[in-house]
Amino acid sequence: MPGTTPGTTPGTPSLLRVMNDRAALDLLLTHGPLSRTRIGRLTGLSKPTASQLLSRLEAAGLVIATGTAAGRPGPNAQLYSVNARAAHVAALDVTPGRILAAVADLTGEVVGSHELPYAKGTGAVEQVSRALGEAVKDAGMLLTDIHRVVIATPGSFDPRTGVLRYADHLVGWQSPTLLDELAAALPMPVEYENDVNLAAVAEQRLGAARGHEDFVLLWNEEGLGAALVIGGRLHRGWTGGAGEVGFLPVPGHPLVRQVVRENGGGYQALAGGEALPGLAAALGVEAPQVPASGAGSGAEHGAVHGPVSGAEVAQAVAILSRAATAPEGANLRLLQSYATALATGLAAVVAVLDPEIVVLSGAVTDAGGDPLRELIEAELADLAPSQPHLVAGEVRERPVLRGALESALAATRDEVFDTSRR
């Protein structure tokens, strides 16, 4: 019957047990170790029922006893936690310059990681296999111990053809047989998602977008991109290209034609990080010179790059950081001009989607801090028919990789925590 758990009938004791099991497991994930009494109170279950539930989950290997709660009169209460080793997931964040790989246990704790620099002449399947293998090795595990892996890339794989689109700068990833080759090379289920979409997943589950059903995440690093969340769900579009806002034609920049071939558009040229040195020069703001490896996650990406190189990201970060530190005079004019550029494209997105909030993320916008965010919000109030609240992203440590792990964990928990299958 649609909407029911496999093997159960609506309203039956077996279905209620499955629902209570999942509720208890989610509470343990949220709150950490809990006693039998505390679980009973949070779920509304009686003590005998809570005891039976915990015994059942312990026998299934999903929870473990983890010590006792002291400091209260009477015997110390036994505490229970989710068995972190009941399942493991992996995630890969792929950029033109490197692949970051991580392994997490069922609670979300990262237990292994590896960074693999781009090597010319190395195929995508070999890169993925090597990066994932090293992260799994770092976790002291085998590939067969991983339940699922989520791979984050720029652009997106067209669901109709399986071909990566909107990311011609990702060398070696455009083969029409790539997904089949990866499926054959890896022993676990593999999922693929746009990198900016996964940054939004991280913010939705762990950061600034918690509790919000309709929001836009504007990413500004190696390129301008957006993630669109409508009714709590990612909107990917017909070809997976929803949110590729860098291609938007915008006032303030000449039309860019053949945008896919150019790998950029008007909004990218107007407001991407590469625009900041020229903007600073026009306003008499000295642009600090930084080495290619000198700042921000964008600087990790080396000589092979997309719309914005690692060196350009580092310089943009340095320019905005300096301006935001002393937002007055020429620095303030720089921030105002850049805020107008960012708000110009963002206004088109807001006019179409009318989101509740806009999350600003990525190393370039992060560098402008609150002064830049407040100026963008003020400009957007003049340019857009609705006024969403602009907030800074809260997941600052590798948000794309974290979002990929969260995506893998959500699907894996749905499988592992479904006690109707046991």
The overall pLDDT average reads 91
- Ends apart, CA distance between termini: 19 Å
Main beta sheet strand tally, sense and closure: 5 strands, mixed
Tally of DSSP β-strands:
15
Order of strands across the main sheet: 6-5-4-7-10
Contiguous runs where pLDDT drops below 50 for at least 5 residues: 293-305
> Could you say which structural class the secondary elements and strand pairing correspond to?
alpha/beta
Beta fraction of the residues?
15-25%
Radius of gyration: 24 Å
In helices, the fraction of residues equals 40-55%
SSE succession:
HEHHEEEEEHEEEHEHEEEHHHHHEHEH
Question: Which structural traits does this protein have?
Answer:
five-stranded mixed beta sheet; 15 strands; globular
Describe this structure in words.
The model is unreliable at 293-305 (pLDDT under 50). The chain has 422 residues and is of the alpha/beta class. It has helices spanning 13-31, 36-43, 47-59, 124-138, 178-185, 195-206, 259-262, 266-271, 276-282, 310-325, 329-353, 363-383, 399-416; strands spanning 34-35, 63-69, 77-82, 88-94, 98-105, 110-117, 146-153, 156-157, 164-165, 190-194, 215-220, 224-230, 233-234, 357-361, 389-392. The strands form four sheets. A five-stranded mixed sheet has the order 6-5-4-7-10, sandwiched between helices. The longest helix has 25 residues, at 329-353. It is built from 13 helices and 15 strands. The two termini are 19 Å apart. The radius of gyration is 24 Å and the shape is globular.
